[in-house]
Amino acid sequence: MSNNNSSTNSTDTNSTTTTTTTAEPTNITDNLLQRCYETVLSDNQSDIVKYLMYFCGGWIIVWCLITILVNICHKNKGHQRYVHFYEELSIILLAVCMCILNFVFNHKSNICKFVAIFNHFFMCLTASIFFAEALFASSMVHGKSDKNGSIPWILYYIFPIVLAIGPTLATYFPEKKYYGTAYLHCSAISTVDMLWGFVIPVWVILTLAGLKAQLACIACDRQLPSQDIYQCYWARRSVKSLVLISQYIFSIWLMILFAAEHQKLYLFILVTFMTLLFGPALFVCHTYGHLNTCQKWAGSGCFASLYAMCPPKPSTYEKDKDDEEDEKIENPQEKTPLENEDENPEKQPGAGDSKEPDETSGNSSPKKSTQRGKGLDPTKHTESQKFYSWLTDSSNSGNSGDILFRPSVA
Known about the structure:
mainly alpha, Rhopdopsin 7-helix transmembrane proteins, 2 domains, two-stranded antiparallel sheet, elongated, transmembrane, membrane
């Protein structure tokens, strides 16, 4: 006897009846989401993908650890370094979720659900730390703070967590029925709204962080003497590299999501090449902004140019009284006509002087000379050179009044 739901086989042997019933699976759509993509990786390809992703996760973790150790050896400290350390820890946890756990527990629905939640959370957390870094660096570049930025330093560590929890919970509760149901990966499913809950918040946070960093990058240098030189040096370089490294890790995260969802082997290979470049890029961006490291590695070498330091700016030249006097000596003022007239003592007496016709013949009397000099300012003295020339002139040319009471040239 058989029907739509079960099939039964009966056998009678010595009054003994054995019945076997096989039930068809029910509610398949509740356990397995209907996929819109037909292609699925083969078993061999799936193994290759797992090994590639394990390698990518380990590669990112190793470079993060190398970055931490180098900064410890170079004694880079301060909140500018602690924010980067916070960032590196978040990237390590993100690499564990998206590259390792994402493909280890993809067939276990309950565990995969939690992996998807943490995968989303750590990506939001990493983006939020980049935003906090942009706020910190921007405030130092604009000279708004002498040290540790314009907001309390504790917010650089608490604010990213709060900002990451919001999008994670806001996506999970409306779309929780899709978490852990892909059976190919533990990430977002691209055919439902779960994808936009994963992608849009991260994209918005990174866009704001990049905008803040670029505005600080193109701003004028407003560093004040009272500011911490280590943090200012870090801030100027941090705003230049923040967009590159933040968009890079976001691109890797998105590429893994779509490669697993579409089951494309070449996309996983592309992710591997991107990860190979990301490790050294993270190392450079988190070390070349620290003054201690640049002072040690700015010498000769194939990578010395990455840590080359800008030449120091010339100090402002303040002028004092001595400098002003030196300038007067080097750049004398234009001479007055009177001084120009005095500079020609070799002039022949009577040769260059225009002789006005005498009103009376002979030398003028003292009365006329006195009357002619009554209207002159007593402070206007006779030019000594003219007077000496008149006395030594044997021709006795010129009137005494014209020499003794000659008005000075203004």
